[in-house]
Amino acid sequence: MMIIVTNPPARLSGEVAMPGDKSISHRAAIMGALAHGTTEVHGFLRGEDCLATVRCLKALGVELHFVRDKLIIRGRGKHLTPPGEAPLLDAGNSGTTARLLMGLLAGQRFGAVLTGDSSLKRRPMERVAAPLRLMGACIEGDGSRLPLRIKGGELKPIHYKMPVASAQVKTALLLAGLFAAGETVIEEPAPSRNHTELMLAQFGAAVCVEGSRISIRGEAELKGCTVKVPGDISAAAFFLAAGCIVPGAEIWLRDVGVNPSRAGIIDLLKEMGADIQVQNRRMWGREAVADLLVKGGAPLRGVAVGGEIIPNIIDEIPALAVVAALAQGETVIGDAGELRVKESDRIAALAGELGKMGARIEELPDGLRIKGGSPLCGAVVESHGDHRIAMALAVAGLAAKGDTAVRHASVINISFPGFMETLRRLTL
């Protein structure tokens, strides 16, 4: 059991580089595997989730290896190979791995069993399985939970209106659409992160985006290319939060992805009064990148958060909740029921653990009500096996009187290996 301890620092300043974006890393590995030729992915995130995707692709016959910070992929085109005598693909704790591989496997001419750890086996998969069955995939097992046996084959295109905005479901269907003869059309009820559409176009797919309508034609072949992965804004959110709540803090975050479908956390923190500057905007391929400067000491106030922005800040809500606990006034987060089925029930976890530290925080069915302004006190808190809960609690400890000990904190390695070392460097 790993325990990390944080407490109010005498200083919090410096320059840090974020790990590569988790969402983009997953997608680059999968599309590189399906492409003809070689793909080089610079800055690939070597967190446990993304490495689960790499292991599964290797089991499907794809050659992948690391050269320093690069992942080199020898693509196989659309035709992968069965995963041996025991056709078991283990996604570990990674929901992204599982859901995206469901779309990929739906188009293969063999069967494989997709499974994961005990946490992942509790997470819903029917939202992906149902539309894939409409396309002709055979998915056996409890359709709402892993393990599932997926037998691909001749897929047909569909026109699918998603009931809930989800980048993972959308991506799974677009990947399956690569194997269907004709045009697959997906309509979103609200915009979700668009890394998949951007990357498919970069790899040469016939993808078209018109408002909430995304279409892909299955005839196109992907071509290997070079992908440069920006720093992960979901990881950066915890350092933005730290900079907001520690007086006198000054933190530079370099080369962070600021894709408009992901940058809502910056706008929200600014709305709360945070002093955040976005500088040196530029493009890495089709992804927007910038340097972020956050300074502490600005008065913070509560906000109302809900509606269409939620799908684009869903991973940043744990960091947002910490800032809200220390802001003046009330913050209400709604329309975020998806938090109930992440690596943990993040609504319950945030309410319970921040509550132990003195935050006035109430669970709502689909979110949180946080009455800010109360001082936080150090406490022994629990990660609930969730990397983002662990990082949020460590950051909260920076503004709490006394020591905060976060139990079972090794889960942070899922998305941010070296998180505590990076945070401690800012206090030296």
If you had to describe this structure to a student in words, what would you say it looks like?
- The protein is an alpha/beta fold and 428 residues long.
- The chain has 13 helices and 25 strands.
- The chain has a four-stranded mixed sheet with strand order 2-15-17-16. Strands 4-5-3-14 form a four-stranded mixed sheet, covered by helices on one side. The protein has a four-stranded mixed sheet with strand order 6-7-9-8.
- Strand 20 and strand 21 (367-372) form a beta hairpin.
- The longest helix is centred in the N-terminal third of the chain and has 13 residues, at 22-34.
Give me the secondary-structure topology.
Blueprint: E1 4-6, E2 13-17, H1 22-34, E3 38-42, H2 48-59, E4 63-67, E5 70-74, E6 88-90, H3 95-105, E7 111-115, H4 126-134, E8 138-140, E9 148-151, E10 159-161, H5 167-177, E11 183-187, H6 195-202, E12 206-210, E13 213-217, E14 226-228, H7 233-245, E15 250-257, H8 264-271, E16 275-284, E17 287-295, E18 304-305, H9 310-313, H10 317-326, E19 329-333, H11 346-356, E20 360-364, E21 367-372, E22 376-377, E23 380-382, H12 387-396, E24 400-401, E25 404-407, H13 419-425
